[in-house]
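Supplementary Note 3. Input sequence used for the single-chain structure prediction.
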Amino acid sequence: MGSVTGAVLKMLLLLSTQNWNRVEAGNSYDCDDPLVSALPQTSFSSSSELSSSHGPGFARLNRRDGAGGWSPLVSNKYQWLQIDLGERMEVTAVATQGGYGSSNWVTSYLLMFSDSGWNWKQYRQEDSIWGFSGNANADSVVYYRLQPSIKARFLRFIPLEWNPKGRIGMRIEVFGCAYRSEVVDLDGKSSLLYRFDQKSLSPMKDIISLKFKTMQSDGVLLHREGPNGDHITLQLRKGRLFLLINSGEAKLPSTSTLVNLTLGSLLDDQHWHSVLIQRLGKLINFTVDEHRHRFHAQGEFSFLNLDDEGNVSFSCSQPQSMPVTFLSSRSYLALPDFSGEEEVSATFQFRTWNKAGLLLFSELQLVSGGILLFLSDGKLKLNLYQPGKLPSDITAGVGLNDGQWHSVSLSAKKNHLSVAVDGHMASATPLLGPEQIYSGGTYYFGGCPDESFGSKCRSPLGGFQGCMRLISISGKVVDLISVQQGSLGNFSDLQIDSCGISDRCLPNYCEHGGECSQSWSTFHCNCTNTGYRGATCHNSIYEQSCEAYKHRGNASGFYYIDSDGSGPLEPFLLYCNMTETAWTIIQHNGSDLTRVRNTNPENPYAGFFEYVASMEQLQATINRAEHCEQELTYYCKKSRLVNKQDGTPLSWWIGRTNETQTYWGGSSPDLQKCTCGLEGNCIDSQYYCNCDADWNEWTNDTGLLSYKEHLPVTKIVITDTGRPHSEAAYKLGPLLCRGDRSFWNSASFDTEASYLHFPTFHGELSADVSFFFKTTASSGVFLENLGITDFIRIELRSPTVVTFSFDVGNGPFEISVQSPTHFNDNQWHHVRVERNMKEASIQVDQLTPETQPAPADGHVLLQLNSQLFVGGTATRQRGFLGCIRSLQLNGMTLDLEERAQVTPEVQPGCRGHCSSYGKLCRNGGKCRERPMGFFCDCTFSAYTGPFCSNEISAYFGSGSSVIYNFQENYLLSKNSSSHAASFHGDMKLSREMIKFSFRTTRTPSLLLFVSSFYKEYLSIIIAKNGSLQIRYKLNRYQEPDVVNFDFKNMADGQLHHIMINREEGVVFIEVIYVIFLAIAFNKFRILHFCVIPCFRFSLLTFWCFFGFAEHGDVDQETALAGGQGFTGCLSAVQLSHVAPLKAALYPSHPDPVTVTGHVTESSCVAQAGTDATSRERTHSFADHSGTIDDRQPLANAIKSDSAVIGGLIAVVIFILLCITAIAVRIYQQKRLYKRSEAKRSENVDSAEAVLKSELNIQNAVNENQKEYFF
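The predicted structure, written as discrete structure tokens, is reproduced below.
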């Protein structure tokens, strides 16, 4: 046994005889007997008494003996009242009164307990030290039920606060029942062995329950073995409990058969700790005190235990170790040294979480100075301090702030200084000078007294917070009871005979993988690389959808999405395609075309699809979306989808519900058809799918799967390719989802008495609430949820203040954000509040967040029980008037619209999004309302894109031009109410705004020419010398007015921006040119004002870009530039509300635009130092995000993919593929023409041509088909 378990823990084991079912029922048995009233006088003791009639024996509840209760000699926080219950009892409740008929009562107190009358432990609830609220007068009884109950023999009441007009006074009662158990005392070398009766064991259920207490930090508590090598071990390591389970299925341990769990902390405190291991089948619950871990084990168990061995005692020994707690940085313990020896010598043990603090200071006689022993960065440092001399340091140990007990031995004798930590001696250091060491008479442990006491004690890093025990000075153990009674030394802010250390990282309140670290009074969370932020790593740094990113103004690209916000799901990377609607694109590993042969129902083919996100993440994303779809293409040649004899499916797919689906693209689940079956154009009208015709030629069934509950596709199964010439191929597109139902989910509240109600909000330890609101009201409650005393409330307190108020049992708190502007401006404002173990916070819009730290040792659980009220309160007063949108609690969205549809005075939805989001529409784009959101109308803008922010640019080759005919457009639009109609109203312009950008190296060049019916014109040219000229001729009988910009050569290949505003005879011209310097660039702006004599154009006839050829009735410079034309790039061309270049590149019939020569969409952005024309690149109009290609026919997809491949190789491949496709098509047409079956020829021809093309280029375009992978 010893070889298996190693060192057996020196401890006490307690085997409870309570009925298990009774415990599981939650202490429903009767355990409320009064335990104090029948106790003898000797069972009561106290720190002191005011007089014999105020002694502790008079502290029974409702008794008037003596002075009517206990009162100490001095009222301070070091007084206590103690009760000896005679034996260990289970205590379930306590009650207190003040002194009878007096002004003496306690308003708050601590409760401590012990088995031996030594080494006390504070009662804790909710993993925090809980101070009980006491009495408000002398005679009323305040009763508290203890949950959990206490099992102890001794109880101690420690007053914290009392009536300021009186003194401490108490009468008490304790309620509970007898608690009996069997104990065994193990000395570290002994063990208790027990052999089970196999007939009494259940193969499915095991329950192991025990309690233990020990001062040792390491040892084995329990080891149990089965006949097949399976075993379970319960072991203490550094005060933490480890559970190791091996199912024995594998000869060598593996991750699937070996389980290693850790629970508990600081379990070597000589107090009872309960352990419960429950096994039901493979489900195992592991519980230590109040902390539980649940998991599923692998393998089967058949435990068999191996008689009493070694020095085992069935009684309970009580080690007399008395710790002391240094509660604050002001704590200290001053002890005298009566030895008179020529040395400084001290030993002690300590434990702490703090990295720094003074452990010991001792003055030196004969020489000034002293010896300092302190912690610095978790290391022990010994310093000899002597004024005027360099300090002598010794450093020992590392990581001593780990909460474990560490022993220290200090010796300064003659002229040597040494220190040992945990038995490891640091190198001794000679002292400076020949002086002998004499103790200064006083040792200061943990800190220094106030300077007013005249002490020379120094504490450079502050006081020590933690516990000490086994303190010895010059080889003599210090009697801490004498210290407590005031007969030895003095102290401040200590708790004697108790170690009050607690592990604030157990349980770990740092969420989402945050790393917990702690000090004596608090804990800290390191959220680095978690994707979350905040005091407990609760708040995700990412948005929950592409829709949310879009409305922050983000462009298309890769983004991390956290679908459930602060919930348990991790963020993941995907592609957001920001069109008029935000599309979410999630790729998988099966985007390539896959061919399948030689399958049958007995030997099926199964293709699996693995996505870049987990199924839980995908489900959350799909649930939020308005619509999802996935294109599934199935090619077939003598490969059926359904057996036509009995209707049995021969091919099918499986989605996230793990159910077989036999419907295909375009169909709903109940119809089980393909797209051609719905449209009535299958190649054989007898069937609902093309493939079911079973032809010996290629055809396909392709369509979009859009039933959200079944998406995404995770598997495809094919079983009918085993016949001669039978073959199939398939391709699955990415999962595409658009919109975000939660982001726009809203409700409008019409009256102050209206509200929506939802189930109780459960955010006991961590809660966050976020929403948008807009209103014109000056105040109102957004949200409220009540408990018995706890509550949360978020409200608009005034037009400029939003307040978050709450109570978790420590009294009400509130924090507010005040804005310099009003919130009731009918604009959307975003509110986010959070309450956790560390703090509460509130943020509104981008204003500075406000926070409120949580009390260090207060209540932490938010316990609510009423309905959640949204938009109002339970009293139907102070309700909110306005709109609330996207309300989320701990990452879960509440469906406001669904609840509003059945609630009076509350309307689903909310209008007016453009008032807040209209600023996202740029460059003349107009915001248009939608029922769920808005969109930017770019009709009259020279830009495109979701926010009208994408420039439309084109490269003009030699001899090319774009002509926009205003006269023709006038006839089309004069009856319209649009902006264009107003622009063309009388066709006589007294004002215009012209904007465009250009880049060229050609001189002279005509950039722009506008003329009227009466030969009035405006020309913008680059002259032969490179200067920019703007030439207005508004009177045909006069020479044009010329504005000349000759400060630099404008044909320098750089990008230049021009804006011209004319109103009547005043022209404002702005030219911005860019100079590139390495990777930086500078912008220069030139402004020019001028006055021209004529005020308006007459009837406009046409607008000509670049390459104007008719030279009559124009000045010589304009004619020369027009003859040369323009070669270069032009971008974002706009004349008032007309965008001619956009009309040319994105025609919407009937647009009066004429394009001559080579004009190709391109980008005007280029690197400096290269030729302007060589920098132009022709780009495909297809959206490179993949959404367009993924929904186009495969033939177009091939062309698009080939076009993306840059360089000569791609061009050659594309030409070869086109030739191949044409040849195949000609061959197909000849065969099909002979058959004279038009519908059949169309389907077979296109499918086989596409399939062969796709299969031939599979390897060549493999990388392009994975453009969303990373």
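The radius of gyration is 42 Å. DSSP finds 16 helices and 85 strands in the chain.
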